[in-house]
Fold each of these.
Amino acid sequence: MYRILIADDDPSIVRVIKEMLKDDYAVCSAGNGEDALRMVRNEKPDLIILDVMMPKMNGIEATVKIREISNSPILILSAKAEGSDRVIGLTAGADDYLVKPFYREELLARVQALLRRYDTLGSIREAEGSTVIVIRDAELRKDEKKLIMRGEPVHLTPTEYRITEFLMDNPGHVFTAEEIYSHVWESEAYSVENTVMVHISRIRDKIELNSKKPEYLKVVWGIGYVFE
């Protein structure tokens, strides 16, 4: 059974989310960012749900720290719907963002999609055979779920890996942000440009020698993104 960590300083929110998830998942909780980070180290949850506004260490700071030790998907919860807050959370290393209040069905759909992506693309539980894509100095080893750039392994989150695999499977093909989102997040794409843009930017920072002058992962302005 998947184990999910909920971190929120509002006990009523924690109770509500636990009630939503308890039938299908093992759930643990933390009341602040520091405790959440400690539980990630000790409990090794398969998915982490973080509120932004928490004492001791907020959700954004916790996300940055968690990304140093864990690849598990992170779903950020916030009462703010502004695009800038979404960008900050995603830039910190979160995989998805959900605005409070939310519907039970929406939370469950996000959780299921993130866990499915992590299980099949973020781990190597079901590797079958050896499939390698080589594009110049970029080598994607699908059986290991690993990207090698210029002979060195690149640390990608499950979402970053999925985007990279999708684009490297189709070199030279330009995909819109909506097409990338639909394929990777496996849900309807609506106002997703910022979400995809932030993940593309994070991948560039990891694979390009100069992210401002990319050689591999490029933007075709007004259209989308391409792996050349």
Note: Residues 3-122 form a domain with the Rossmann fold fold (CATH 3.40.50.2300).
Amino acid sequence: MKATTRTVNGIEIINLQGKITIGAGDSQLREVITNALNSGKNNVLLDMSGVTTIDSSGIGELVGSYTTVTNRGGKLKLLHLPAKLNELLHVTQLITVFEVYENEPEALASF
């Protein structure tokens, strides 16, 4: 997995590319979220458009990241969910936990 970050109006936008799977992918996600929080950016928008694969470990890390950000007084939201991930979040009912957006300006305005 690769992650690139940029900041817009104090919101950390993290663009994820590749696989969020057990091993490197899930730990990289945890690391990039932790880095954002440690640099004072409590509002995080995960752009999932480049995610090709996610497994149960990756889903677990998404939930863990959501909890970590929320406990630090911030918000974690998702942008551009691939169809498979959207379906998976619906099946697991996690879609009710995450705020999901299809366009960036709308997502940014929601913070």
Note: The domain at 2-106 is CATH 3.30.750.24 (Transcription Regulator spoIIAA).
Amino acid sequence: MTINYNFAFSFQLIPIITLILAWCVIAIFAYRMMKKQQVKPKAWKALVCVLVGLFSFSINFPSLWDTPIKISILPLGVWILYSFLKRKEGRWVTYRRFAWLGFWANFIFLAAALIAVLLQNVTYPKDELSTYMSNVENAKIRSIHPSGKTRTLDTDMLLKQIHNMSREKVQGNQWYYEKEFRDEKSTKRNERFPYQLFGTTSKWGSGLHPIIYLEADGKGILVSAPQKQLYFRSNEPLLKGEE
């Protein structure tokens, strides 16, 4: 098959819908083929031919929107079916269209996958904080480093700021060297993101399960997603309590 749909431990609504629609299109083509043929094939055998026809030799292309792309070029499944069905006269003629439908179905899945990725990026923008933190009413923080002080999350301020926070570049190297420089001058080790935010949920259907950290000054949020990290800054501190 041309695209790898991975729904393990996540629920991505749009890819599931497009995958179902792709199978519906294939089923319609198969149904019309059966109606047109004079010698009616058995439905279960036609289905097997379609499934076997899916097997192909594919070439990989650069990822598009973080999605691996494969294009089928050699119909391995069709060749396998031909080698078996040609042994009995008339059988290959009856089922060859379904074998080729399986091969061309790879391109239907490819089109569906590209449409799904496009719609997924539009519906769930990966550069917006609200995608990763859709519901924050039950949000809390916990200290994950000794330098983290006993403070609480200002949920009301977070609700006000979540759509207004500016995205800034993740300065990984700079943050590391700044931390090393501070640690050399002080016996007390400080962590830039000593708090972890929990109790939030991402947008329903996005399939995202990020790990979210809060900066020591209470204004920075670091979102650690499977394929990237994003850093957002608030105009107002999101922490309450002793500084």
Note: Residues 91-123 form the longest helix (33 residues).
Amino acid sequence: MNETPMIETRELSKTYRAGDVDVHALAGANLEVLKGEFVSVVGASGSGKSTLFNILGTLTTPTSGTVRIDGRDLKDLSNAERAEFRKTMVGFVFQKYNLLPTLSAEDNIRIVQYIANRALEFTPEFEGILDILGIRDRMKRKPRALSGGQQQRVAIARALVNRPRILLADEPTGNLDSKNSAAVLGLLRDLNQRLGQTILMITHDQEAASYAGRSIHMRDGKIV
């Protein structure tokens, strides 16, 4: 494993204004994730996990502090560069699969290639990912013909099709039963171990967190 940090935050803070009250969603969070690591971020609701996720994915900006992804300081990015960053550097997996119901699994994946101006074809490497996920024979089916676990696997494939450096997963098993949760978490671990994919997974579930190579905990906007 390369010891160069893929993700690094220093004294990261985010304050929201709610009426006359300042809400400190992050309060000096320091985090380091190495290239090729699978790290889970564990914490209760309101601990700051989702705010951290949104900042790392450039979906929102911090109030103060620094964020470096693969050595690049995110504060230096223009709005256009942030959009490009989300297309190429980061893959997102959410609790809700967010698949378009009128499109097949294959087209739900290809639309991400289209948005990123990539060739609309699957590389041999990506075909191997479909095999790892066990959905190669489900590509022509629409979401309604897939189980919840299969839909989440399609969502993971969609997140990986543009070969992002980082996979950000926010409660990826929150809508799944225990059997499918274990299967999806095992697949994430397999992608990390076999392909060296850097994964940061947010969860409130200690059992889910145990699939990662390392777990960190958040409380009151800080990493403890």
Note: The CA atoms of residues 127 and 189 lie 18 Å apart.
